[in-house]
Each structure stands twice: as structure tokens, then as C-alpha cells.
Amino acid sequence: MEQYYLKKGRRYVPAGYSFPDMAEGLYWRQKMPNGTRTTSICHWAGSNPPQPLNIEKLIAVMSQDDRLARYVGKLTDPESDEFKKAKEDQGDFITGPLQFYNWSAQDLASCILRFAFEEMKDEDSKQS
Fold first, then answer.
1. Mean pLDDT along residues 44-67
2. Domains of the chain, residue spans
3. What number is the average pLDDT over the span 19-44?
């Protein structure tokens, strides 16, 4: 990362930073328990090129992925209250705990929420 300066008279004033490893676009930065996470809004929304977005609605959906990932993770434990409630709600359709082989709970949660956002976008465009 490099800091840029502008010459104002006889002195230089800080003008910003360059991020060579980050593509241009709009990023959402979320504070997490163990640090921060930065996510490309245009990439997450799945638009290429980006279409006009309802940023408030998108951020509301994106902010749920950590909570959803923790919930999905708890469904993998047969002793968790979440799994017991899901089994009670779904009856015989659930025969055992959720299993992951090559997906993380965070990836699954992100895909589910992206799908939900796309559905909301489609509903908005139909109403317009």
C-alpha cells in the first residue's frame, strides 16, 4: 500500500492510499470478533457490469451471513438445540445432522443469501 501526496504551495498534503491488490469498486467493511472483513459489494451482488443496487437492502442481507453461517454450523452437531429444533420442526425429513465435505458454513450461507438477494431484486424489477 502506498500513500499519495498533493503539492499545495511549498508543502505536500496527504491525498490518499493506493491498494494494488484490491480491484476498483465499492467495498463493505464489517467488524468481526477476530478482526475485520472486507467484501466487494459489486462481486457479492453478482452483477457484471454492476447494475444500480439498493445498497441498504444489500448490506442488510450481507450482514446476516455470519449469523446464518453459525446457525448452519450448529446444524452439524446432533446435540445442539438448533439441530433438535430443526428435527422437531421438519419431522422425519431430517434423519441426521447436516454434513460438510467440501463447503464451509460461511460459503453456504453466502450462497443462500446471494440467492435471496437476487430473488428480492427480481421482485423489485417486476413491481416497477
1. 72
2. 2-127
3. 73
Q: What are phi and psi of 66, to 5 degrees?
A: -70, -45
d(C-alpha 23, C-alpha 97), whole Å:
39
Backbone angles phi, psi at 113, to 5 degrees: -70, -35
Give the H or E element holding residue 124: helix 105-127
pTM over 0.70: no
Per-residue model confidence as pLDDT tens digits over 63-92: 788 788 888 888 889 999 988 888 888 887
**3-state SS class at 85:** helix
pLDDT of residue 45: 67
Q: Could you give the CA distance from residue 125 to residue 122 in angstroms, rounded to a whole number? A: 5
- Which residue from 3, 2, 1 is spatially nearest to 15, judged by alpha carbons? 3
**CB neighbourhood size of 103 (10 A):** 12
CA distances from 41 to 53, 90, 97, 112, 127 (A): 9, 34, 33, 16, 24
Q: Encode burial over 7-30: b for 16+ CB neighbours within 10 A, e otherwise.
A: eeeeeeeeeeeeeeeeeeeeeeee
